[in-house]
Design a protein that fits this description.
Blueprint (H helix, E strand, L loop, with lengths): L2 H15 L4 H22 L19 H10 L6 E5 L5 H7 L4 E6 L2 H14 L6 E5 L12 E4 L6 H11 L5 E5 L10 E3 L6 E5 H10 L6 H4 L2
Parallel strand pairs: 1-2, 1-4, 2-3, 4-5
Antiparallel strand pairs: 5-7, 6-7
Bound molecules: S-adenosylmethionine.
S-adenosylmethionine binds next to α4 and β2.
Amino acid sequence: MDDIDVILQDKRLRLLQQPLSPIFTASTGALLLGVYRLWTVFALPGFRKVPVNLKVPFLPSGKTQTQNVMKLLRGRRGCLVDLGSGDGRLVFAASHVGLRCTGYEINFILTTSAQVRAWWRGVPPSSASFVSRDFWKTDLSDYNNVTAFLAPGVMDVLGEKLLKELPDEARVIACRFPFPDWPCSASEGQGLDQVWAYDMGAVRGCLLRTPMPLPKAETQC
Ligand SMILES: C[S@@+](CC[C@H](N)C(=O)[O-])C[C@H]1O[C@@H](n2cnc3c(N)ncnc32)[C@H](O)[C@@H]1O
């Protein structure tokens, strides 16, 4: 091996073996923490109070998904709530067909942007309003139409809340992630744009008829 190769190899070895300077490690850590804090301030305000397993980030409904939701809302009347309304696109679409819509959104930047957009478009608050609020802590019994584009991990818990609070005549539209054990009344679209409609009366009827599986010890008797 040439001398120069030996020197380079030796240098590389020494670099690999050298422990990182504590100052370098500390400043890199502080920088990453700062970037993360900044990101949480803008992207996830309000989220600190939501349990980890119920956190859902902002991802707007696409055009096709929104159209699919509107197909399943055809002929519906009354009040609609969008759980996690983001920039307000589902609320605006539903208010267009005469539903009185409310969007609950935990990220106040998104709520404010939806409010400004409503004002800019001249949509009155009686048609579309946006509230900075955690929907998990909000009673939903006044709504007979619900839209939810959330995450697979929260659908079970959401199902329990809606079963407790919604009236029988309510229709729930789940976007992209269906309720695991609920029978759907209708569905539109495919793949990432698929949406499902659930009529609460039918869901309750079906869940009551379906016997709950007994715990193992009891089934063995
Ligand atoms: C996947 S996005 C859907 C946005 C909008 N509904 C749409 O279809 O375009 C989910 C939204 O729910 C909001 N969110 C998550 N948890 C929430 C909570 N507990 N209360 C209110 N909003 C929440 C998020 O900030 C995010 O904007």
